[in-house]
TrEMBL record, chain A:
Keywords: Carboxypeptidase, Disulfide bond, Hydrolase, Metal-binding, Metalloprotease, Protease, Secreted, Signal, Zinc, Zymogen
Catalytic site: E381
One GO CC term, this protein: extracellular space
One GO MF term: metallocarboxypeptidase activity
EC number(s) reported in the record: 3.4.17.1
GO biological process: proteolysis
Gene3D superfamilies xrefs: Metallocarboxypeptidase-like, Zn peptidases
Annotated source species: Orthonyx spaldingii (Chowchilla)
Catalysed reactions listed for this entry: Release of a C-terminal amino acid, but little or no action with -Asp, -Glu, -Arg, -Lys or -Pro
Boundaries of every Peptidase M14 domain copy: 122-415
Cofactor(s) the protein requires to work: Zn(2+)
Identification of the protein by name: Carboxypeptidase A1
From TrEMBL, chain B:
Keywords tagged on the record: Protease inhibitor, Repeat
Gene transcribed to yield this protein: Lxn
The protein's name in its UniProt record: LXN protein
Gene3D superfamilies recorded: 3.10.450.10
Lineage top rank: taxon: Eukaryota
């Protein structure tokens, strides 16, 4: 039922001084001249303070009356005494107004209508990011598509954006953000990357040349359950939200759950710890879906997993001191990527293998991807170095994404120019 | 000699910075590490591991300047409950914060109701400007906790001030009861810690609990 104009007018009034608690809106449909007269009599009874939303017009036309609470009993009695039937259209006008108010407030924070009006300088909810993805696809159907590669523990869809100018299973670059849910600058950067890819392609610059021969896959919210939890309950949540039997503690570290040195030193076997590796490799659907995707695609040439914070660019291994066979090349690419990153705002990064630069970590993403043969496997730890840590101010999102993008381009270009 | 990009040097540097924040930090001075320039490690028999560091620091309230500092951090063998020994020498002068400190002190002393706040910064990284000095005092307090509780296998950062409550005192010190969240990098745990800081513009800060 919609009475938008009248309701809006009431809202305007309600927000000022009057209240409509207990007021009801009654509808009468006069079926005889007597009934019509009974209703018209009501119009003359000023002391009842009736407000005719639909005035009496004739037989068969509805008459809607807003009746203030004190007048309810006399009005109903008057109608019943004359045998005039009525229905209650609105049981409590104030309740409806309150609902409308809430709805209006909510719609003033409405989702933007295009990816050009999306606010890249703010942190967003999962719904807003998923809506962004759909808009991006709708605006660029020849370049972008959305794939669902699986479902999280709490049954949230795991979406990957595919950027492709054609071909069949072209050599590809994979980028994921938000695998650790509290690292908010990463999901926010992922959104910016998505838009940047589209813009570069439209302007035939930047990664447009890479897209001529390669596809880009981007998973922005890699751990949606954890992300939702950081928004509703615990801003510092890192892991997934799975429950494995035998423990009251929740969650597995998705960056210890991969099948590379699984369970060895550098992860915890305690379900209550932040680096809990899980009961077995790929126990987490968030991880398994990527594993299945990578294996079935079979042609991914560069894999980048993005974290925060510490300002580091890392390559394998984390689970062993043994240097990766391609260590020298990876080290050189890292040096170039970090130099490109620094060139924009002077942000300083360190780089090296995981185990020498940050700590021993087993069951990690890029150790697995590297062992699968994806030579250019890198992990970023984005801004900052601890001043804000996970709570990076939103105004640093875009600068962080911009500088990181320069490093990502170095990696992508190197992969393209050194096809294997 | 240690590569600055390797983690053992970075962990020792974090201890030195925590110690320095405790000693020299205040509501008008927030020291942070700009760059770890050099690091050396020496194993001393029957004592432990000694790190010699050359650090470049900046004040977050005065980022155009940096100050160089040398530090020595000794992690003791065996008893893991002993805090590392730290010595720090600042080369040159730190910017004076006398005026800002006195202003802050007067402002807090004149509050009718005891200051109380939570979640600094908030989830989006925002800090209300009037709470910036409270956060910097949390750096002082957590600097102490980090120094006293660090080992070669830990690296702590202050993740967030979960809660702070001022407690009015009959003497001249300001007292702030903090609950801070410390992020430990190696285990990735975020650990709540209660710490009480007493602070005075001339005497500086000290942890009482």
């Amino acid at each position: 039922m919609r009475l938008p104009v009248l309701l809006a007018a009431l809202v305007a009034v309600a927000t000022c001084t009057e209240t409509f608690v207990g007021h009801q809106v009654l509808r009468v449909v006069p079926k005889s001249d007597e009934e019509l007269q009974t209703v018209q009599e009501l119009q003359d009874l000023e002391h009842l303070q009736l407000d005719f939303w639909l005035a009496p017009r004739g037989l068969g036309s509805p008459v809607d009356i807003r009746v203030p609470f004190p007048s309810l009993q006399p009005v109903k009695a008057h109608l019943e005494a004359s045998g005039v039937s009525y229905s209650i259209m609105i049981e409590d006008v104030q309740a409806l107004l309150d609902e409308e108010q809430t709805e209006m407030l909510r719609s003033s924070r409405q989702l933007p209508l295009t990816t050009n009006t999306f606010n890249y300088e703010a942190y967003h909810t999962i719904d807003e990011i998923y809506s962004f993805m759909d808009m991006l696809v709708a605006e660029n159907p020849n370049l972008v598509s959305k794939l669902e590669i699986g479902r999280s523990t709490e049954n949230r869809p795991l979406y990957v954006l595919k950027f492709s100018t054609g071909g069949t299973k072209r050599p590809a670059v994979w980028i994921d953000t938000g695998i650790h849910s509290r690292e908010w600058v990463t999901q926010a950067s992922g959104v910016w990357f998505a838009k940047k890819i589209v813009q570069d392609h439209a302007n035939n610059e930047g990664v447009a040349s890479i897209l001529e021969t390669m596809d880009i896959f981007l998973e922005i919210v890699t751990n949606p359950d954890g992300f939702a939890y950081t928004q509703t309950t615990n801003r510092m949540w890192r892991k997934t939200r799975s429950k494995h039997s035998g423990s009251i503690c929740v969650g597995v570290d998705p960056n210890r759950n991969w099948d590379a040195g699984f369970g060895e030193a550098g992860a915890s076997g305690n379900p209550c710890m932040e680096t809990y590796h899980g009961p077995y490799p790929n126990s987490e659907p968030e991880v398994k879906s990527i594993v299945d995707f990578v294996k079935s695609h079979g042609n991914i040439k560069a894999f980048v997993s993005i974290h925060s914070y510490s300002q580091l660019l890392l390559y394998p291994y984390g689970y062993t001191q043994t240097p990766a066979p391609d260590q020298q090349e990876l080290h050189e690419v890292s040096a170039k990527a970090v130099a490109a990153l620094s060139s924009l705002y002077g942000t300083q990064y360190e780089y090296g293998s995981i185990i020498t630069t940050i700590y021993r970590a087993s069951g990690g993403t890029i150790d697995w991807t590297y062992n699968q043969g994806i030579k250019y496997s890198f992990t970023f730890e984005l801004r900052d170095t601890g001043r804000y840590g996970f709570l990076l101010p939103a105004k640093q999102i875009v600068p962080t994404a911009e500088e990181t993008w320069l490093a990502l381009k170095v990696i992508m270009e190197h992969a393209r120019d050194n096809m294997y | 000699e240690l590569p600055p990009s390797h983690f053992p040097a970075a962990r020792a540097a974090a201890v030195a910075v925590g110690y320095l924040r405790y000693l020299r930090g205040g509501p008008g001075r927030g020291l942070q590490l700009r760059e770890l320039r050099r690091a050396r490690r020496q194993d001393i028999d029957d004592v432990g591991h000694k790190y010699d560091l050359e650090l470049e620091l900046e004040d977050v309230l005065d980022r155009d300047r940096t100050v160089t500092c040398t530090a020595e951090v000794v992690y003791h063998l065996g008893n893991k409950n002993t805090a590392p020994d730290v010595q720090v020498t600042v080369q040159g002068e730190l910017r004076s914060t006398e005026e800002a400190d006195q202003e802050f002190y007067n402002r807090i002393r004149s509050l009718e109701k005891e200051l109380e706040a939570e979640n600094i910064p908030d989830s989006h990284g925002n800090i209300p400007p009037e709470l910036e000095p409270i956060l910097l005092l949390a750096w002082v307090a957590s600097g102490y906790v980090i120094w006293r509780n660090s080992t070669e296998n830990t690296k702590f950062h202050l993740a967030q001030v979960k809660h702070v409550k001022q407690v009015k005192r009959s003497d001249e010190d300001l007292q702030f009861d903090y609950v801070v969240l410390l992020h430990e990098m190696v285990s990735q745990e975020v650990i709540p810690w209660e710490v009480t800081l007493l602070w005075h513009p001339r005497r500086g800060g000290r942890v009482s609990r």
